[in-house]
Amino acid sequence: MNKMIGISDGSGDPGVSTVKSAVRVLDILEHLAHQGEPLALRDLVRNLKFPKSSTFALMRSLVSRGYVVRDRNDRYAIHPAFRDAFLRPSRFEDRLVAYAMPIMEVARDATGETVILAVQEATLDARLVAKCVSPQPLRWDSELGKMVPGYASVMGRVLLAHTDPARVDEYLARTPLHPFTPRTITDEGELRALLEDIRRRGYSIVEEEYALGGCGVAAPVFDADGTVVATVDIATIVQRFATAREAMIQAAVAAANEISARLGHRPGAGTEAGASEETH
Questions:
Q1: SS3 160
Q2: How far apart are alpha carbons 83 and 214 in whole angstroms?
Q3: What percent of the chain has pLDDT over 90?
Q4: What domains, with CATH codes, occur in the chain?
């Protein structure tokens, strides 16, 4: 006879499923794998937003099984033998996409618009690494692997806004600000002010600056160290943007923050994207 053997969450509630407990165990192990130092139980509860009682029970089980070690100060760390398995099952980009895709699908379904994930290249331009395409007949789409300019695209600007200023100086010194459309910002001073604005409010908006007929809202994705490692873009056509603008802002910021959390970013650290729109 076959039976499932799992780690109990200690709640004693028959309505708590094995699947839910398994997901929490994976979340705990992945979160610990990304930390530079052990975490106290209160930190795990705050970061993961799990109930304290069930988190304690899960940690006790993980310690007894050897997946997690507890130090003399009652702080927890993943056992070194398992860190790489939960930190880098493959190269970072593969892990990023694996974490992001389910979240992007939710954002796509909620907005009805295309959702794109991009990373920054050494050139400081952005490269598309994942997408969930809108089901609507008229929609925005781009091919994976495409490079888009750091200064003119909504994704490129988010990444540029969070890049070391010295590297931004070098980028602007070597990059002609070529207009892709009549609306493209080509004045360096205006662009620098916009990058500061993006960094302050936590998202970027582009309306027909990179391509006529295309609009988008993008927000930054942070890793456990608070470094911006990617950006999420909700992309649409200009005909729908006016009425969808606020919903797209909220969706882009929410998706970016959720992916950041999956990468080990701690909410409330002061670096997550915001969603209050300001005029500029």
A1: helix
A2: 42
A3: 50
A4: 18-87 (1.10.10.10), 92-262 (3.30.450.40)
| Side chain identity at residue 129, one-letter code | V
C-alpha pair distances (Å), 175 with each of 125, 154, 168, 172, 268: 10, 17, 10, 5, 36
Is residue 15 over pLDDT 70? no
In terms of DSSP H, where are the helices of 36-187? 41-48, 52-65, 80-87, 92-111, 154-161, 165-174
Assess whether pLDDT exceeds 70 at residue 280: no
CB 204 within 8 A of CB 217: yes
CA–CA dist 218, 154 (Å, integer): 6
Which strands form 75-78's sheet, in the order they lie side by side?
39-40, 75-78, 68-70
Distance CA 188, CA 173 (A): 10
Quickly state the pLDDT bin for 257 (edges 50, 70, 90): very high
Bridge partners, 204 (sequence order): 218
- At 140-175, the pLDDT tens digits run 888 888 889 999 999 999 999 999 999 999 899 989
Task: Kindly provide the b/e burial profile for residues 248-263, where b requires at least 16 CB atoms within 10 angstroms of the residue's own CB.
Answer: bbbbbbbbbbbbbbbb
Q: What is the pTM of this model?
A: 0.65
Report how far apart, in Å, the C-alpha atoms of 35 and of each of 43, 71, 153, 159, 264 are: 11, 15, 33, 23, 7
Q: Token digits for 190?
A: 């205006």
